[in-house]
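Dear H.,

Thanks for agreeing to be a second pair of eyes. The structure we're designing against is below in token form, covering all 288 positions.
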């Protein structure tokens, strides 16, 4: 199904409910319990609405989805900012033979080849290569991706810095122009208000901003260009970022491939590590 807003989905549910008494029963329950339904299985929805599971499947098909799985995935994308951690405790005991977290992450990873072929990825690589000073930014859960990205981007290019709320750089970027700076930000649900306001402030100074986010309707799209869209898995106590991490690694690799003398740079880093005994050799202890 094409991209849809929550209001459009509500109207479609109401319209589909008019098709039969059973559909009306399902539609009424969904309309009154959107957040709860977004966390349900088809069996749970059928039990809650007091209809058969087949009726739930037919209802979702009538809505224009391939089945319940697609319907609930779209609903989750539209509403999961409203989820609260206690509601996700249900994911602590997944089915032994069908863990929804693993299923979602497998599906997310299967979408990566198409994402990596998109023009937005090429634009992001150029953005990172051409930035004299690259600042990686994020807040709350989104910021957990930054250390990984910063560590490896620093191996393939110079002047990689980190900005998170409360740092001196965070405040400096928001308060005055930074003519040699470009910001790459990670923006995933639940979208931190402090991060979105900060990005908006950056654009007032003309600071270029690129972003990695989870959906086409992400609020960061109002200010970021390019904007990479990559799915996250929500079927756990906390969101899982397997696909964003792989996409980040892909970006690092593509930047390295277009960096002159990258082999010499990596060799210099390796020689430093060897000289300073950065890593423990196999079969040796730290004191050997």
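And this is the sequence the design step returned. I haven't edited it by hand at all.
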């Amino acid at each position: 199904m094409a991209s849809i807003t929550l209001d459009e989905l509500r109207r479609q549910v109401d319209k589909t409910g008019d098709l039969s008494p059973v559909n009306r029963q399902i539609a009424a329950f969904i309309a009154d319990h959107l957040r709860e339904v977004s966390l349900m299985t088809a069996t749970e929805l059928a039990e809650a609405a007091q209809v058969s599971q087949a009726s739930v499947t037919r209802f979702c098909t009538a809505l224009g989805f391939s089945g319940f799985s697609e319907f609930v995935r779209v609903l989750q994308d539209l509403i999961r900012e409203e989820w609260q951690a206690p509601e996700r405790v249900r994911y602590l005991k997944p089915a032994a033979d069908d863990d929804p977290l693993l299923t979602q992450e497998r599906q997310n990873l299967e979408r990566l080849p198409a994402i990596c072929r998109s023009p937005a990825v090429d634009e992001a690589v150029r953005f990172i290569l051409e930035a004299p000073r690259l600042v990686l930014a994020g807040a709350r859960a989104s910021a957990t991706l930054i250390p990984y990205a910063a560590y490896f981007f620093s191996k393939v290019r110079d002047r990689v810095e980190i900005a998170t709320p409360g740092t001196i750089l965070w405040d400096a970027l928001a308060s005055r122009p930074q003519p040699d700076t470009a910001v790459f930000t990670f923006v995933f649900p639940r979208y931190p208000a402090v991060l979105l306001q900060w990005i908006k402030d950056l654009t007032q100074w003309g600071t270029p901003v690129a972003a990695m986010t989870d959906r086409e309707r992400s609020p960061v799209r109002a200010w970021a260009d390019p904007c990479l869209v990559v799915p996250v898995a929500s079927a756990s106590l906390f969101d899982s970022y397997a696909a964003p991490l792989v996409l980040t690694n892909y970006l690092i690799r593509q930047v390295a491939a277009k960096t002159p003398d990258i082999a010499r740079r990596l060799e210099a880093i390796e020689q430093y590590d060897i000289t300073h005994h950065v890593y423990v050799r196999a079969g040796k202890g730290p004191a050997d």
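Two observations from my side: The mean pLDDT is 91. The radius of gyration is 23 Å.

Warmly,
E.
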